[in-house]
Amino acid sequence: MQVTPKIAQxxxxxxARWTSSAKSGVGTSLxxxxxxxxxxxxxxxxEIYYPRLDSACTRDLGLLVTGPDGYFSEEKRDAAHxxxxxxxxxxAYRLVNTANDGAYRIEKRILADPARAALLQEIxxxxxxxxxxxxxxxxxxxxxxxxxxxxxxxxxxxxxxxxMLFASGRGSCLxxxxxxxxxxxxxxxxxxxDGWQQLTHAGKLDPACQRAENGNVAxxxxxxxxxxxxxxxxxxxxxxxxxxxxxxxxxxxKRGFEPAAKSCVQNWRKWQAGLLPLDRRAASGVNSYRTSxxxxxxxxxxxAPGATVASLSIPWGFDKGDDDLGGYHLVxxxxxxxxxxxxxxxxxxxxxLQILDYLSSIQQPDGHWPQNAWLDGSxxxxxxxxxxxxFPLLLADALHRAGHLPRTRLAAFQPMIERAAxxxxxxxxxxxxxxxEEDAGYSxxxxxxxxxxxxxxxxxxxxxxxxxxxxxxxxxxxxxxDQVERWTYVTATATCEVAGVDGYYVRIxxxxxxxxxxxxxxxxxxxxxxxxxxDRPAQEIVSPDALALVxxxxxxxxxxxxxxxxxxxxxxxxxxxxxxxxxxxxNGDGYGEHEDGSPFDGTGQxxxxxxxxxxxxxxxxxxxxxxxxxxxxxxLERSAxxxxxxxxxxxxxxxxxxxxxxxxxxxGSAMPRRGLRHAAARREALHRGQDRIAVQDMALQQQDPHxxxxxxVACRAAGSGHGALEHRQLDDRPGQQDRRECFRHPxxxxxxxxxxxxxxxxxxxxxxxxxxGECRLLRHIxxxx
Length: 785
Prior knowledge:
By secondary structure, the chain is of the alpha+beta class. It contains 19 helices and 27 strands. The chain has a ten-stranded mixed beta sheet. A five-stranded antiparallel beta sheet has the order 6-5-11-17-15.
């Protein structure tokens, strides 16, 4: 029966929102021709990215089921969901969604087509009550082209005489095709005339709704299932034009699901076969190592080789709209270096080298890196974090020491190294933002990265024949290392008395001001807190960040100051959960759900972070407690969600099933964690750590990630009296011998002393910091002159 096409009612639709950030799967084809990345949660496809890893093009694609007597069911809300990969380390998935009322079962296989920009979804519908003829199954697709729900146009059309569902927005298009004929289809505005609204109110689609323009739109089409034909393949194609998108979709359908699946699996098998065999099964049965490596590789860019986004998720996405363009699908230099550490830990040096190349390409002229950026390197947020400006130096050093960056190739990175080291010296040690992107000041974590990076840069410059510059960097690092306690360690506080300790490292000490002359003075503005509840005394705020001083080799694990700090951390930040202990970022943290479980909306209450268990495990390895590290690795794995992905935070309150919040399980923040790297790379490092009993964080124990780079390096405090550093490289390659260099404070060293003017230049920079006061370097200069 012919219908008169009409424009759907309700323009422009309700305000656009993204969807759940708790992903159970992320995937791609690992093919240059297949410019598609996808995510899964609640048994349905969520954000699909095209043509770049930072360009989300859909909200979700799921199924609706109707039946006799007004029956209506939505698989993402009304079914139990199970997911598994095709095989270990291959992020193509089998899903089973079983209706909670026992009416039906939907089985899916999902993958990205390696041959083109298309995603394939094989669907099998099985009635568990009644017969197949009793049900109608609809595909519901919400386009969000590109990185926004508003401003999209959807329509029902045809290509080469075959019906298709189309959408366009911001220069990109999509087309949805089915191997079974489409029956009734409609385009509408979300919340008013979309297919979900039509089916719930009228029990059927209005096929006259053929177009919805410039709004928050949705496409719905009935798949032509019959009693004899219970399997269909949907192909979602993308392109710069509607025709290109349609051609990609139909080409995928024509080739077929099985050939695409074979090609996809082969791509991943080949890549996984080149990695170290560190396979490990978690208690859930998931191969946590191959899950981690697949997650890391899935987040790599094709358009910008070496770039990886932090996470294919948008924190609390179901409550976020078009004003959150980036989500976590942006590049963070810190996370990028940590991901490189994960690749190195797994034996993929080529990927780590690509990351270093990419970092070099987006370095700013003055030597720093943006807080975060799009794939083309353009900054998103305006902040500058000194650890992010230092981390790339540690990556270069790790690659050099491992033999992947020989001197001939190192020369190409010398300008990057010199600019970065210069920036750190000129602008550190104070950071404009800490690793949590919140506060300025003296952070033990940032200090550890800066000092380690300066020593790493010194080694690299030595290799490039820049001995004077290398000495200058070592002396700067030595002076900063000597002041870490002065800047960040407190004694004789109320917290000391309660914990029974002499002192501890604070989370961050404010920059020098008239009100803050030591870590015991001044206040730290706690972000994400309600108005009037923000400023807290700096001496009251503690964080596991202080353990970076051990991971990067600046303090020994049994240093009494570290041991006391661990006691305070555990007293204030340790949370006992069903899977084991996890830790909060710091006391008073506001980045998390509210007490009633409602999503973070600018304020909230911080929840435990699994990645901090990984960092703590590295500390336990450094302390020689392998059994405790092994237990924490188990805790980390038991914190994973469905599919083995690691969340940013877990819920620590009583169960709230109506909000999908269960104690010890992933919260609504983000999964995989904005660094999969923070979590997945840390997990890989611990896999190696369990075998080698080594602290593996990087050159000077590289990173906050957590990778296993520090394989050949141990860097530790040689004594508190001189603030000296012992930088020891242990090289067990054939024909090499251990070598050891001790770099003492300039005033304690007589050999290799640079010109007095260079000492004066260094002090001119350091003297800007009141807290250094009458440092030994200044006294030395005065005695010399």
